[in-house]
Backbone:
C-alpha cells in the first residue's frame, strides 16, 4: 500500500541528488566551482616522515621577564579565556626561571611540548587521540579525546592542559574544546603553510630556531650537530624534538 | 554435587534504604552533570593535580571490586567449604563495586559524552585501553560464575568459571596498578612493585567491603554470623592488612634509597602537610594498626563488632593511602631540572594546594551510594544471603580447616 509513496519519495531524493550534483559543478565564476570551494582547505599531501620538525632554544639569549613567545602563542592559537584559578588555565608554552643554588647562575627558558620521538602521552592515550604525525609533531585529535587526562600524568614536562571551561571566539584553524586535553602543536597550521611557529617568529632575541632536524643542510641540524645541546630529562631517552643550549 | 547455600533476604525498611542509596547516587549524578555542563573549573582539580578525589574513590572501588571476589575464589578455587555459601555474594559485590567505580571515573571524564569512543577507538599500548577488555570480561566472567554458583543444575561448571575469574581478577588489578607503575615521568610512580601492591591491597580492601556489607545483611536478617566463621574471616583480613603494610614499606624504602626520590619521600612522609597526616594518621594508624589490633588482640577480637570496625578502618585507611598516592604524587612538582631552583608563571617547582570542591565530593560519595543501591536491590531479589550449615561443617571438620 505504501509502495507508490515510496516510489515518489525515491524519485524525489534521486532528483534532488542530481540537482545537488549539478549545482556543485556550477561555475560561480570562471574557474571557481561550489565543490572546489568545499575542498579549498583539504591538504594536498600528508606530513612527510622524511621531515622531523624540531626547535633549538638558546637560553643564553632568552631574557628573564620576557614573555613575547607566550603572548604570541596565545594570540595565534586563540587562548584567551580567563580563569579565576590560574592553575586551571591552558599553558601551551610558559617561561621557567632556573637558578643553580650552588653557583648562583640563572637561566630563563620557554617550556613547551617537547615533541618526543617516543611520546609517553601517545603510549598511554586510551583512544589514540594523542598522536604523532609522520613529521614528528605530537598532536591531540579533538574529535576522539575523552578528557581522561592520562596523558597529563604521563607527560614528564607538564606540557599538557585540560580545557576547564566553555570556550568562545576560537581561531577557526585551531580547534579547541572544553573537556579536551591540548598542548603546543608547533603551530602546525602555520608550519603546513611553510611558516614558522608564532613563538619563534615573535622572539625578540632570536633565541628560538625552528627547522627540520632530518635535513643536514638546515641551520638547526647543523647547530645540533656541532654545538652542545641538552634534552630535558634526557635520562628518559625520549629523543626530544626540542633542544636547549646553555643549561 | 553441592550448591552454595543461600537465600533471598527480607530487608526491614527496605524502601528507606533504597531511598538513601538512590539519593546519594542521584546527588553524585547531578554533581557530574554540573561538572560536565560548566567544565572542570568548578572542581578543585587543575592542570597540575588533574586526578582528584573522584579518582581516589573510583580507583578504591575498582581495586576493591577485584578483591571482593576473593571470598568466592577461596571457596571454589581453593576448596574451603566455609567460603562456599559466600561465593554468590562475593561475585555480586565484585560486580556492583566495579560498576560503581566505573560510574565515578567515567562521569569525571572531561568529555563523558564521548564514552562510546573509548570503546570504538582503542589504543592497545595504553593501560586504559586494556581496560576496555579487562572490565567487560570481568563483568561477564563473574556474572557467569555467580549464576553457576546459584543454579543447582549448573553448579558443576562453577569451578572452571571460578578459576577463570580468579586469574582474570589478578590480571585486571595488575592493569590498575600498572596505570601508575608504567608512568616514568613521576617520582611517586614508575615502580614495578605497584602492580603487586595493588593486588594485595585489593585483597584487603575487597574483603573489608565484603565483610561490612555482609554484616549489614546479618543485621537485616536479625541473625549473627557463626563465631568460628567470623574469626576465620577476621584472621584473613588481618593477614591481608599486614601484607599491605609490608608492600607499602618496601615501596617507600625503595624510593627513599634512590637519592633522586628522597625529596619526594620527605614531602609525602614528613613535610607535605595533609599528605603525611593522612599517611600516618589515616593509613598507618587508622587503616593498619587499628584493624590489626581489632582482629588479633584476644580481648578485642572477641567483641562481636570487631570485624565490622576493622573493616571500616581498613576502608578508611585504603582511601587515605590512595589520596596520598594519587593526589600527593601530583601535588609534588615534576623534577625536570635536578639540583636547580625552579619557578614559573605556571607554578613549576611549587606544591599544588589541591582541595576538592563540593561537586567532586558528591560524585565520589555517589560511587559508594550506587554500590550500596545496586547490592541492596540484588540481595532483595536473588538469593545471596549466606546460609552456613554449621552441623555439617563441624562434622566434616571443615569449620576450622
Residues:
Amino acid at each position: 500500500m505504501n509502495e507508490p509513496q515510496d516510489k515518489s519519495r525515491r524519485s524525489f531524493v534521486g532528483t534532488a541528488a542530481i540537482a545537488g550534483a549539478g549545482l556543485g559543478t556550477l561555475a560561480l565564476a570562471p574557474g571557481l566551482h561550489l565543490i572546489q570551494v568545499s575542498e579549498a582547505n583539504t591538504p594536498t599531501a600528508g606530513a612527510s616522515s622524511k621531515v622531523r620538525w624540531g626547535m633549538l632554544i638558546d637560553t643564553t639569549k632568552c631574557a628573564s621577564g620576557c614573555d613575547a613567545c607566550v603572548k604570541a602563542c596565545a594570540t595565534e592559537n586563540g587562548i584567551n579565556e580567563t580563569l579565576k584559578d590560574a592553575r586551571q588555565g591552558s599553558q601551551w608554552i610558559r617561561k621557567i626561571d632556573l637558578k643553580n643554588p650552588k653557583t648562583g647562575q640563572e637561566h630563563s627558558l620557554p617550556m613547551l611540548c617537547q615533541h618526543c620521538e617516543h611520546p609517553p602521552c601517545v603510549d598511554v592515550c586510551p583512544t589514540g587521540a594523542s598522536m604523532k604525525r609522520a613529521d614528528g609533531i605530537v598532536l591531540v585529535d579533538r574529535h576522539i579525546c575523552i578528557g581522561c587526562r592520562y596523558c597529563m600524568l604521563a607527560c614528564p614536562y607538564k606540557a599538557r592542559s585540560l580545557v576547564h571551561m566553555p570556550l568562545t571566539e576560537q581561531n577557526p584553524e585551531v580547534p579547541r574544546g572544553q573537556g579536551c586535553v591540548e598542548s603546543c602543536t608547533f603551530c602546525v597550521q602555520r608550519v603546513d603553510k611553510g611558516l614558522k611557529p608564532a613563538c619563534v617568529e615573535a622572539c625578540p632575541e632570536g633565541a628560538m630556531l625552528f627547522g627540520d632536524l632530518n635535513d643536514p643542510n638546515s641551520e638547526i641540524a647543523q647547530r645540533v650537530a656541532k654545538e652542545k645541546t641538552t634534552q630535558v630529562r634526557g635520562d628518559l631517552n625520549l629523543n626530544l624534538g626540542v633542544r636547549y643550549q646553555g643549561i | 554435587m553441592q550448591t552454595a547455600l543461600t537465600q533471598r533476604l527480607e530487608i526491614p525498611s527496605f524502601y528507606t534504604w533504597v531511598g538513601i542509596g538512590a539519593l546519594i547516587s542521584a546527588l553524585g549524578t547531578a554533581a557530574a552533570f554540573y561538572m560536565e555542563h560548566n567544565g572542570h573549573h568548578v572542581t578543585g582539580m587543575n592542570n597540575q593535580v588533574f586526578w582528584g578525589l573522584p579518582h581516589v574513590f573510583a580507583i578504591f572501588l575498582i581495586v576493591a571490586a577485584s578483591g571482593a571476589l576473593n571470598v568466592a575464589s577461596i571457596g571454589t578455587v581453593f576448596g574451603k567449604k566455609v567460603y562456599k555459601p559466600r561465593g554468590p555474594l562475593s561475585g555480586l559485590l565484585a560486580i556492583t563495586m566495579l560498576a560503581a567505580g566505573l560510574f565515578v571515573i567515567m562521569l569525571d571524564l572531561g568529555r563523558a559524552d564521548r564514552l562510546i569512543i573509548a570503546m570504538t577507538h582503542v589504543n592497545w599500548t595504553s593501560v586504559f585501553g586494556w581496560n576496555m577488555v579487562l572490565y567487560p570480561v570481568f563483568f561477564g566472567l563473574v556474572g557467569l560464575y555467580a549464576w553457576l554458583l546459584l543454579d543447582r543444575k549448573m553448579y558443576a561448571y562453577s569451578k572452571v568459571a571460578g578459576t577463570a575469574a580468579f586469574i582474570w581478577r589478578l590480571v585486571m588489578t595488575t592493569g590498575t596498578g600498572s596505570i601508575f607503575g608504567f608512568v616514568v615521568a613521576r617520582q611517586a610512580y614508575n615502580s614495578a612493585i605497584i602492580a603487586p601492591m595493588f593486588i594485595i591491597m585489593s585483597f584487603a580492601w575487597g574483603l573489608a567491603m565484603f565483610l561490612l556489607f555482609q554484616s549489614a545483611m546479618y543485621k537485616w536478617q536479625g541473625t549473627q554470623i557463626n563465631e568460628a566463621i567470623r574469626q576465620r574471616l577476621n584472621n584473613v583480613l588481618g593477614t591481608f592488612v599486614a601484607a599491605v603494610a609490608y608492600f607499602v614499606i618496601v615501596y617507600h624504602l625503595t624510593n627513599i634509597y634512590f637519592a633522586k626520590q628522597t625529596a619526594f619521600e620527605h614531602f609525602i612522609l614528613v613535610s607535605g602537610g595533609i599528605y603525611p597526616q593522612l599517611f600516618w594518621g589515616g593509613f598507618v594508624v587508622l587503616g593498619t594498626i587499628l584493624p590489626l589490633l581489632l582482629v588479633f588482640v584476644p580481648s578485642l577480637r572477641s567483641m562481636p563488632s570487631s570485624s565490622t570496625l576493622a573493616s571500616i578502618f581498613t576502608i578508611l585507611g585504603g582511601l587515605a593511602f590512595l589520596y596520598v598516592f594519587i593526589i600527593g604524587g601530583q601535588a609534588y612538582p615534576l623534577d625536570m631540572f635536578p639540583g636547580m631552583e625552579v619557578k614559573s608563571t605556571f607554578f613549576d617547582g611549587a606544591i599544588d594546594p589541591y582541595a576538592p570542591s563540593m561537586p567532586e565530593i558528591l560524585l565520589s560519595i555517589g560511587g559508594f551510594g550506587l554500590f550500596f543501591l545496586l547490592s541492596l536491590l540484588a540481595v532483595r531479589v536473588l538469593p545471596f544471603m549466606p546460609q552456613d550449615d554449621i552441623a555439617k561443617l563441624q562434622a566434616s571438620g571443615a569449620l576450622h580447616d
Residues 3-25 of chain A form the longest helix (23 residues). The radius of gyration of chain A is 23 Å. The longest strand of chain A covers residues 93-99.
